[in-house]
Structure formats: C-alpha cells, structure tokens
Known about the structure:
Helix Hairpins, 2 helices
Amino acid sequence: MSARQEEKDGASQEETTFKEELNKKIKEQKVLVDELCNLKKNRRVYIQQPNSNIFFLADKTETLSSCKKTLDNMKKEYQDL
C-alpha cells in the first residue's frame, strides 16, 4: 500500500469515527430535549457549570430553547459531512 492510500484510509476512518460520535451526541441531545419538553410546569431545572460539580437553577424555557438550538446545529454539521 502506498503512503497516500494509507493517509486516505486513516482520514476516512477519522471521519467515520467523528460521524459516529456526532450521531451519538445528537441522540443524547434529542433525549434531553424530549425530557425537558415532558417536564411538569412546576419542576425545576438545573444546569451544571463546565468543569465543576456546581449546579445552578435555570429557566426551563431558556434551557429548552438552548438545547434545541444545539440540536439543530449538530444536525446541520452532521448533514454537511
């Protein structure tokens, strides 16, 4: 096998791995959006701060819209691949 062929195989494997990871994250985000949609009105939502174990009370509607935007961005990125 030539060096170029090996580079192409390596790049396609990386792309496939990236697609699989992105697809997994999309599924997780879908579950998150569904869970937030199905919460009762009086339930509280907490957001974890990045790189810490601290949670802060958050607005449910803002959190839901943020999660939907993230999901849409992930779907667009997946379609572009």
